[in-house]
Amino acid sequence: MLRAAILVSLLAATGASATEDPSGRADERPWKLTTGVYTLSGGGEPNARALDLNLRRSGDFGNAWIGWYGEDHGGLTQWRAGWDRFFDVGPLRVQPSVQVASGGFRGGSLYAEAGDTWFVGAGAGRTNLRPYVNLNFDPNDMVMLAAGHRTDGQQVQVILVADNREHPDQRHLHLNWKVDRGDGEKLTFDVLAKRGDVDGERIRRLGASVTYDWPRWSLRAAWDPKVNFTAQDMLRLSVAARW
Q1: What is the mean pLDDT of the chain?
Q2: Does residue 224 sit within a domain?
């Protein structure tokens, strides 16, 4: 944990200049540091707590991030890093991403979206199947379909994420609603319906998250049952600072 804190401090000290977000507006706070505290429980396993530190830098190059995760039970730790960026390719907005992690993990994804007010999207991801602390909480070896509607200040979309490699029965269905409340404040709700096999048992569960963003801060609370299709449930609380 000390090494994680030192690295995050060094990265933050490198400074930042104004960048631009996809809408073309100047982004005067390109750095984001998120600290998450997670609680795992149930499934007949010992309760555990985890700390997740993530530092992201946004700019013309896209988004680059580095993170560290550690649990107090069993000593599980992992460093992670990644990059993603949207590109305009004709009528499409295309987003590639790559991820690496300690322990030899490598992964990547590609997403494409078309439309403005009404939009549809599709994507896919692949990894080298090495151990990975999956903190996007959706399958990484997957295909994805999305559709939604944008108006001034609001966006509603439905996202289906389906494992298409080792566990093709596992599905995540998200209903996501974002509201711009003005003065740089945003409210996001995400409802998750998941189904699939966990240790030979067919499960169906509902999860949810809520996020509130201010210009410089954000708070998030989430409940993810059978997290990553394991036996345990996870409660996640996180706070983020931007500068």
Answers
A1: 90
A2: yes
Give dist(CA 187, CA 149) in Å, integer: 16
Tell me, yes or no, whether 231 lies in a domain. yes
- What percent of the chain shows pLDDT beyond 70? 89
With bands split at pLDDT 50, 70 and 90, how would you rate the model's confidence at 13?
very low
Nearest C-alpha neighbor of 208 from the set 194, 222, 228: 222
Quote the CA–CA distance of 85 and 94 in Å, as a whole number. 8
* The pLDDT of residue 43 is above 50: yes
Closest by CA to 170, choosing from 146, 192, 148, is 192
Torsion of CA 107, 113, 119, 122, to 10 degrees: -50
**Number of structural domains found in the chain:** 1
- Nearest CA to 150 out of 121, 183, 123, 109 is that of 121
